[in-house]
Design a protein that fits this description.
The complex is a heterodimer of chains A (467) and B (226).
Chain A: H1 3-9, H2 11-77, E1 84-88, E2 94-97, H3 104-108, E3 115-119, E4 129-137, E5 143-149, H4 151-201, H5 217-266, H6 271-302, E6 311-314, H7 315-332, E7 335-340, E8 346-349, H8 351-368, E9 379-388, E10 391-398, H9 430-440, E11 444-449, E12 454-461
Parallel strand pairs in A: 7-9
Antiparallel strand pairs in A: 1-2, 1-5, 3-4, 4-5, 6-8, 9-10, 10-12, 11-12
Helix pairs in contact in A: 2-4, 5-6, 6-9, 7-8, 8-9
Chain B: E1 2-6, H1 10-22, E2 26-30, H2 33-42, E3 47-51, H3 59-68, E4 75-79, H4 84-92, E5 97-100, H5 105-118, E6 127-130, E7 133-136, E8 141-144, E9 147-148, H6 153-164, E10 170-171, H7 172-180, H8 190-202, E11 211-214, E12 218-221
Parallel strand pairs in B: 1-2, 1-3, 3-4, 4-5
Antiparallel strand pairs in B: 6-7, 7-8, 8-9, 10-12, 11-12
Helix pairs in contact in B: 2-3, 6-7
Classes of the chains: A alpha+beta (467), B alpha/beta (226).
Chain lengths: 467, 226
């Protein structure tokens, strides 16, 4: 691409060219119209003046006869900026006036309208003056000519013409200048945007587009793109975190699995040993599959691909279903399950996922309910579903050990397990899944203190915002 | 039962064919979508086990084609995708059950056998009988040896499903799906506790236990005398 081609291809150039064309056409029309209109106006004024003078002089003639009009013409002829006057007798002899030469035929033709003719004011002055004149016949065969020089009008026309030329020149000059400035500025910023994005594409994810602080379109564009980059960077680091965690949390059991099989192979041949090792292997792989499924599920939910399965769901019914499912297990552990869903609340949700989220929460609460404490106080898990404005608030509260405030955000992340829970079975994905379900429903999750214990609150909009 | 297995993974297919044969069934194997559709179209099978992602053609399209032709041979869809929307898609295409990979063979067998039984006449029975245990589906009553057994609504549905599949292994996930309509995998043994409650009501105090635990697979209700 040549440098010229590149410039011609820019939006700035194209826009400037269009503007220049449009404004030129517009100003030509404008100036032509003005000059035409003024010309007309000046012409009319001249005619008016001539008509008035003729009327006055004819009046003079009627009252004072020939001497009167001759005197009047003599008088008017010598005033500065005088009109043109000429009075002749029947034979064409000039009696008075300030015109030395007009076309001979003119005096014989008299019309109602003034006409434009060349004339000489003084004999031999070149004859390149032009006047608008009118000839009238006076009683007694006299002819009178009254006219005005139109040089002024011509001059005016010239001025307008010049103004037009200047205006056009200035316009084009300014357009070129602004184009040069705009295109340079725009090209520079766009080139800088492209350069930065190429750098980011090349792998430097921390790179950000320049924001000049003027708040113009480019700043807004850069702001949006930067926000997008922030999100991408965040997601990528999240992904990296997850893959690190996957590596750890899946490789550890895989290693255990492998070691166990290896140990069994190395041990003296005994069906019993083999059977035990194989059973343990199946158990371990089942746990791995569970972890893997949970991970995939979270990923799928976060990708939002379950949107299709959203139906009208009664939150109270989901809460009751889950409570009913867990009630026997809870009773076995000496934990009381209570339900508080005073009125039916329907929301657009995925029943399966909502059920699973609540099940995970109840599961957690049961897991950490310490049966040893059963002696000192009643262990309870309280499930509730209530309406709060445009939201459904689902809560699972227990009076177990709770989670320290500092750890409450952290436990929502994948694979995060607090030290105290390491001894318990689990993958560290349960709460992450609940958080993902809340996000899928455009809601949020909050971990709080139930004094004592943990309360997990899901706040979900009844009708999710439309995309 | 004659079972058609449409599965492209050779090793998995060989294992399934062998295990199904050992369980007393007659399995055929098709390694890709085209041959599978051909065999399935020939008819004569009690159950189809169809992998979703097959070479040459999609497993779902085979089932769809059969359904269009009015063939309602029960089909179990196997898929590496276990999510809710995939399951819904599979069932909408005409599949009768859906099993996510990887699965335990006992789970697959229990489901295949449940599907095979579904076709047999007598499905519309209003009273299920296992030994001296009677369940009246219309009256919602259960009696054991003539004595009424009071059950909670969910316990009734649990027993109903077990008795519908009497003599067959029913897995925990099958129970969760059919009785609670949930497809996730609870972390704790919730189903086991429900079963032991039910067992306490229908078996405790009566001579012969009817509700059995099948180790490593699930539960089965059957008349032990036979």
């Amino acid at each position: 691409m040549t440098a010229l081609g590149k410039v011609v291809r820019t939006t700035a150039f194209k826009l400037s060219a269009i503007y220049i064309a449009v404004f030129s056409i517009f100003s030509v029309f404008f100036v032509l119209y003005i000059s035409y209109a003024t010309n007309e106006l000046l012409g009319e004024q001249l005619q008016q003046t001539i008509a008035t003078e003729i009327f006055g002089l004819a009046d003079q003639y009627r009252v004072d006869g020939l001497p009167g009009i001759v005197e009047a013409i003599e008088q008017r002829s010598h005033q500065p900026g005088a009109s043109l006057y000429l009075i002749t007798d029947v034979s064409g002899r000039i009696l008075a006036g300030n015109v030395s030469q007009v076309p001979a035929s003119l005096l014989n033709s008299s019309g109602a309208e003034p006409i434009t003719v060349p004339y000489d004011r003084y004999a031999g002055d070149g004859g390149n003056n032009i006047a608008m004149v009118q000839v009238v016949r006076l009683p007694g065969g006299f002819r009178m000519l009254v006219g005005r020089d139109v040089g002024e009008r011509e001059q005016f026309r010239e001025i307008i013409g010049n103004a037009l030329a200047w205006a056009l020149a200035l316009l084009i000059g300014l357009a070129l200048l602004s184009w040069f400035f705009v295109s340079r500025r725009v090209l520079k910023r766009i080139d800088s945007l492209s350069a930065t994005s190429r750098r980011i594409m090349a792998g430097d994810l921390s790179g950000r587009l320049e924001v000049t602080g003027t708040g113009d379109e480019f700043d807004r564009l850069a702001d949006s793109l930067n926000a997008m980059l922030d999100r991408i960077e965040h997601l990528l680091y999240g992904l990296k975190d997850v893959s690190d965690n996957i590596a750890h949390d899946l490789k550890t059991p895989l290693t255990r699995l492998r070691n166990r099989v290896e140990a069994a192979l190395a041990s003296p041949e005994s069906t019993e040993t083999y059977r035990a090792a194989l059973e343990a292997t199946i158990e371990e792989s089942d746990q791995l599959i569970k972890t893997f499924n949970a991970l995939l599920m979270i990923a799928r939910i976060e990708a939002g691909s379950q949107d299709a399965a959203m139906t009208e769901v009664e939150a109270g019914a989901v809460v009751r279903d889950v409570a009913e499912l867990y009630e026997p297990v809870a009773e076995e552990k000496g934990v009381e399950l209570t339900i508080d869903a005073p009125e039916p609340v329907t929301l657009k949700a995925n029943r399966e996922l909502l059920g699973q989220a609540l099940a995970n929460l109840v599961d957690n609460a049961l897991k950490y309910a310490d049966p040893a404490e059963h002696e000192s106080r009643r262990l309870t898990i309280a499930l509730s579903a209530k309406r709060d404005g445009d939201n459904v608030v689902l809560a699972v509260a227990d009076n177990g050990p709770g989670i320290p405030a500092a750890d409450r955000q952290r436990v929502l992340q994948r694979f995060v397990r607090l030290e105290e829970s390491r001894s318990q079975p689990g993958s560290g994905l349960g709460l992450s899944l609940v958080a993902a379900v809340a996000r899928l429903h455009h809601g949020d999750i909050e971990l709080g203190d139930a004094n004592p214990g943990l309360v997990v609150t899901l706040r979900l909009p009844i009708s999710p915002p439309q995309q | 039962m004659r079972i058609l297995l449409i599965e492209d993974d050779k090793e998995a297919a060989a294992y399934l064919v062998k295990a199904l044969r050992e369980a007393g069934h007659v399995p055929d194997h098709a390694p890709d979508g085209d041959s599978g559709a051909g065999l399935a179209g020939g008819g004569g099978y009690d159950v189809l086990v169809v992998d979703r992602m097959l070479p040459k053609r999609d497993g779902l399209s085979i089932i769809e084609e059969l359904r269009v032709r009015g063939d309602d041979t029960p089909a179990l869809i196997l898929s590496a995708l276990g999510q809710v929307d995939d399951r819904v898609k599979g069932l909408r295409a005409g599949g009768d059950d859906y099993l996510a990979k990887p699965y335990a063979f006992s789970e697959l067998l229990a489901r295949v056998e449940a599907l095979g039984r579904r076709r047999k006449p007598g499905e519309a029975e209003t009273v299920y009988r296992v030994g001296d245990l009677h369940l009246d589906r219309l009256g919602h009553t259960v009696t054991r040896a003539g004595q009424p057994v009071p059950l909670q609504p969910r316990e009734f549905r649990l027993l109903e499903f077990l008795m519908k599949n009497a003599g067959q292994v029913v897995t925990r996930t099958m129970l969760l799906e059919n009785v609670w309509d949930y497809h996730f995998d609870p972390q704790t043994n919730v189903i086991d506790v429900h079963i032991s409650r039910l067992r306490a009501k229908i078996d405790k105090g009566f001579g012969e236990p009817l509700l059995h635990t099948v180790r490593g697979a699930g539960y089965m209700i059957r008349d032990g005398a036979r």
